[in-house]
Amino acid sequence: MTRFGAAVACVLACGWAAADEPTNAVLRLQARIDAGTVAFQHTERQGHLKSLLAELGVSDTSQVLVFSKTSFQSEKITPKTPRAVYFTDDVYVGYVPGGEVVELSVPDPELGTAFYTFDQKADGPQAFARHTDSCLRCHNSSRTQNQPGHILRSVFPDRSGMPVFSAGSANVDPSTPLGDRWGGWYVTGTHGKVKHRGNWALAGKNPDAEDRTPNQNLTDLKDRFPVAEYLTPHSDIVALLVLEHQTDLHNRLSRATLIATEALRHQELLNKELKEKPDHRWASTTRRIELAAEEVVRGLLFSGEAKLEDAVKGTSGFAEQFAKRGPDDGRGRSLRQFDLTTRLFKYPCSYLVYSRAFDDLPAEVRAVVWKRMDEILTGRDQSAAFAHLSAADRTAVREILVATKKGLPAGWGEK
Q1: 365 pLDDT exceeds 90?
Q2: In which order are the strands placed within the sheet that holds 128-131?
Q3: Cβ-Cβ contacts under 8 Å for 87 (sequence gap 6 or more)
């Protein structure tokens, strides 16, 4: 049995949700498979990949490619055979040519972040296997603040794709300067004068001694690897930027859920032990929830986002397709509209505010998030963490949310 075999065999036994309604996108698809309403098509080149993406509602324009050996299928990953990552608001899909499985990760309100695989054999089980230890060795560590989460790394790979760790590495989030991003990744698109680390494998051991210029502003990767092995020939720069924002915010949402759940459970036990009323709220519980909610608010409002130095333009059509998804406020404004000149989005509030991952936050966290968003967007909070928001930004975001977000607290956003 391969090192993935045990996990693939553990199809429904490894923590399958007991709730009446599936708690994440993978489990919802599994329920449809079990009901016999899904028929996967297997292709010789990419196995079940196309069918999985179609059933999960994931566009191939989101494709980004990583060639560093930083995945559990690392033995199959090289600069000639990069790993493809596809994503939408609530699921991430990883594919390696010749891999035994397709990898998936999803935000989950009970598990924080959950990791699965799907067998690539034509006659394999049409069921997702949940992974725990094999994925959580990396995805539940100090790199994810010791909570299950996503990791995006920028490394200096050698020509086999092996990271040269002596040269350094970085965890990437929206605060990372573009010049430090995408080491070990392919990047297609234009971005002006900034020199990122993508499209580049080290010839030696010293990155500072090598010229990155030939690897910048690439729009075609045909001379790098056989692009026909993939669904598209792109590793779109705008998709990469969105992926970095989205994984960071999903991690914040997951941490907030787990922290609040733990705090409330501890409070319940303490109240029983000390014979307090069941609804007695301890100051320590409130503080933990407030701190977790504040991290969500900062992610939602792009606090600390690194500025773009020049205009950015992708190659796959991802930006155009993404922006059309809305919702808009009736005046044509949407949180999915891009800026791509000085920052990622035109209106600096994340579209994930519409996501199930946001709505699945514990009610106690959501209440604090909306309170803080109200204080910031009405201008009552002018603290340094939100100084990047102009008065026009705050007004526009507030108006868009009032027009498009269901379930806002009564009176929210009123000055």
Answers
A1: yes
A2: 128-131, 112-119, 101-108, 91-95, 83-88, 64-66, 185-186
A3: 58, 62, 93, 239, 243, 246
- All structural domains of the chain with their residue ranges: 5-229, 249-404
Alpha-carbon gap, residue 35 to 346, rounded angstroms = 42
CA 118 vs CA 34, 184, 276: distances in Å = 14, 25, 48
Reading the block at residue 4, the tokens are 């993935």
For the whole model, what pTM was predicted?
A: 0.91
Q: What is the pLDDT of residue 140?
A: 47
Return the closest-CA partner of residue 415 out of 363, 376, 362: 376
Rg (CA), the chain: 22
**Using CB atoms within 10 A of its CB, is residue 377 exposed (0-12), middle (13-18) or buried (19+)?**
buried
Which is nearest to 204 in space by CA: 169, 167, 179, 154? 167
Task: Give yes or no for a contact between 114 and 24, defined as CB atoms under 8 angstroms apart.
Answer: yes
Backbone angles phi, psi at 302, to 5 degrees: 60, 35
For residue 252, pLDDT over 50 is answered with: yes
pLDDT of residue 337: 98
Q: Rounded CA gap, 81 and 66, in Å?
A: 9
Residues 241/242/243/247 CA torsion (nearest 10 deg): 110
In this structure, how many other beta carbons lie within 10 angstroms of the beta carbon of residue 384? 7
Residue 142 has pLDDT above 90, yes or no: no
d(CA 94, CA 115): 11
3-class secondary structure, 154:
strand
Determine the Cα–Cα distance for residues 238 and 244; give it in Å rounded to an integer: 10
